[in-house]
Write the structure tokens for this entry.
Amino acid sequence: MRFSELIVRLGRRRWFAASGRFLMPLDRRLIRLTRGRVSVIGWRTAPPTLLLTTRGRKTGLPRERPVLYARDGDAYIVIGSNWGQNHHPSWSVNLLADPSATVTINGATTAVRATLVEGTERDRLWPLLLRVWPAFHDYDARADRTLRIFRLDTVT
């Protein structure tokens, strides 16, 4: 079994999700320092991860988080799974308050505008996210909420 397959399998376990929350600060630093080549869950075999920078809705300060993503044409698709917890991640609440953000991938930063995806469009994008990280299905089943899906379109 390849390392990437092992990580995907482990991603479905509750203990893995719990540990992932605590590893986020380290993951953010690793991704930034290696320009996306290394993350906590792998080296070049990890699921596609971007650094999402939102503006804090209360403080107005920039808030940066590593987030898995899928592509839909030129857009980035992200999900506020929060590892299956019952509350939404703060970055998703920040995007609802101010949809302007940036994404950093492989050291390149791009301005984006977020749109909350619902209905049939959400249904269409869900399988794209599951291909990136099948554990989203488990997180969805555990969480007592609807996981928010956002489309991040490049601002020109």
